[in-house]
Prior knowledge:
Layout: E1 2-4, H1 5-10, E2 16-22, E3 36-37, E4 40-49, E5 52-66, E6 73-87, E7 100-102, E8 107-109, H2 111-121, H3 131-136, E9 140-141, E10 144-145, H4 161-173
Amino acid sequence: xxxxxxxxxxxxxxxxxxxxxxxxxxxxxxxxxxxxxxxxxxxxxxxxxxxxxxxxxxxxxxxxxxxxxxxxxxxxxxxxxxxxxxxxxxxxxxxxxxxxxxxxxxxxxxxxxxxxxxxxxxxxxxxxxxxxxxxxxxxxxxxxxxxxxxxxxxxxxxxxxxxxxxxxxxxxxx
Length: 174
């Protein structure tokens, strides 16, 4: 998703609006959990203030990730709302932790920033909701088993049962 800076200059004080489907399938080949990703629908606007350009955009799409328990494909829809700031001055040098990105040349390329924000959106783990898959999932193996957290009943230690009975008798007398 590239914009010639000339288009931004022509828009004057009005925001330059854009809407496009962006192919980010390169993310599938990177070393991450994304197995597949559909083209991402991006829409937003860019506003120029002197040498600064502020781009706000939303990106919607769906990625396929592996289930943390069964490794089956799990569709994961996402929606991002982001704001990026750029500077077109030839004298601007990006500082180490600056959130302002320099623009070199006559074209503003938003695609790397879309990809970066999508990678930040990938959850650490997802689980499949499909009951058939859940029923076929392994629940135990050699030296391990899946347990569910259920509230434990108040059990009295058998060694302390005699003391508990004495406390109960004392409460009944009072």
